[in-house]
Design a protein that fits this description.
Number of helices: 17
Number of strands: 11
Distance between the termini: 54 Å
Length: 410
């Protein structure tokens, strides 16, 4: 590969820094959506100052004790941040946040509707005062409209967005097993910050970024939504099966496992019939030769596949499908995911520090070859960085002691 023009031939190519090094983020955040968004920024090199309540902090700290005594949601969403515990209802606590924001690049909040505006911490107010600031408001339903004041938690938004209507079995709708609405909003907030930083690089100005959980998840419902709007019929709930492709489902094997396979076209069906089911005539049988026919005869199609796989061990079933060029997967549980051979082979696991000791964590999925590895910092204790941050905004030890004594800081 050619050397860069300004790089001497006898010197190694210098590793690039993390893309957000030098960026400071202040976040008044709780639960999942904003914390997960700002964790992405921290992993890419940003300094993230997390402002928490003095009486217990981010309420996600109390969700469970599964991660060696710490809450699994909090461990997942908050590594690499500095924790500042303040009472924002006290003018002295609010003044600290305003001082931090004055020197920050990004501000993120996901307080209940109207709470940030009452504190003067909404995006419009902050950006009017600080033209280079990028300020993010994350809400359940947006800042206007009849649902603006409605309480919004992940499962509620999954219902409002229609995700539950297309998830589950024909008999029973179910929520997604992960906080899909929170994650969708988080990732749009993350990408919104990145886009705003690029724009600021060319214009010199920041500006507000608005993300709602409902609108984020509605975008993710794009395929079934367009199917229903333009085709007239919402896709049916089919469990692990695919609504419009067959065979595409999970099938039991002889040793108690389950293998999911997907036949995407008639050529693949021909190979499945010949090399796995062992009945080549099915490739040309009018009842099965086309996807439309297989969907129309889904029960019989599934029975043929199930009969072929239930006499095979899981490993042999996967091997035969792979040899036939059929897309397939093992239906894993979470313990099996934690031991997934692909993640291990690619070296995706690291350890991060926490108040409970080292914890196993995945590298973020954004990989930047030639640059520094993601900065996977420690999970902070509540108020772990309060003293240092108060000193950084110019407070004396006596002033800090007074804030602690009065319950304004912790």
């Amino acid at each position: 590969m050619d050397q860069p023009m300004d790089q001497p031939m006898d010197q190694p190519v210098r590793q690039q820094p993390l893309p957000l090094e030098g960026i400071t983020v202040v976040a008044v955040e709780q639960a999942v959506s904003a914390p997960f968004a700002t964790r992405q920024l921290a992993d890419l090199g940003a300094r993230v100052i997390k402002v928490e309540r003095v009486d217990g902090g981010d309420f996600a700290r109390g969700y469970d004790t599964a991660a060696r005594g710490l809450a699994s949601h909090f461990v997942w969403c908050n590594r690499g941040k500095e924790s500042l515990a303040l009472d924002l209802k006290d003018p002295r606590g609010l003044d600290v946040v305003r001082r931090l924001v004055a020197d920050a690049d990004v501000f993120v909040q996901n307080l209940a509707h109207g709470a940030a505006a009452r504190l003067g911490l909404d995006a419009a107010t902050l950006c009017a005062t600080h033209p280079r600031l990028i300020a993010v408001d994350i809400s359940g339903y947006g800042g206007s409209g009849p649902y603006a004041d409605k309480r919004a938690y992940d499962m509620l938004v999954q219902c409002e967005a229609g995700l539950v209507s297309v998830t589950g079995t024909p008999e029973q709708p179910v929520k997604a097993g992960i906080p899909a609405a929170d994650i969708a909003a988080a990732m749009y907030a993350f990408s919104g910050v990145l886009a705003a930083l690029v724009r600021r690089g060319t214009t010199g100005r920041g500006g507000p970024v608005e993300v709602s959980m409902l609108e984020a998840l509605a975008e993710w419902l794009g395929h079934p939504l367009h199917h229903a709007m333009h085709g007239g019929e919402p896709p049916a709930r089919t469990g692990l099966a695919h609504a419009v492709i067959a065979p595409y489902d999970a099938y039991p094997t002889a040793d108690g496992g389950r293998v999911l396979l997907s036949v995407q076209n008639d050529r693949e069906w021909r190979r499945l019939a010949e090399q796995v089911i062992g009945r080549p005539s099915l490739a040309t049988d009018p009842a099965y030769a086309t996807n439309a026919a297989r969907v129309a005869h889904r029960e019989r199609t599934d029975a043929l596949v199930a009969e072929a796989l239930r006499v095979l061990g899981t490993g042999e079933a996967l091997a035969r499908l792979e040899r036939a060029g059929i897309a397939c997967a093992l239906l894993r549980d979470l313990h099996e995911l934690a031991e997934h051979p692909q993640l291990a082979a690619r070296g995706r696991w690291r350890q991060v520090g926490s108040p409970a000791g080292p914890l196993k964590a995945l590298l973020p999925p954004i990989t930047l070859p030639g640059g520094g590895e993601a900065r996977m910092g420690d999970v902070p204790a509540l108020g772990q960085h309060t003293g240092a941050l108060l000193r950084a905004v110019g407070m004396t030890d006596d002033e800090i002691a007074a804030l602690r004594r009065d319950g304004v800081a912790a």
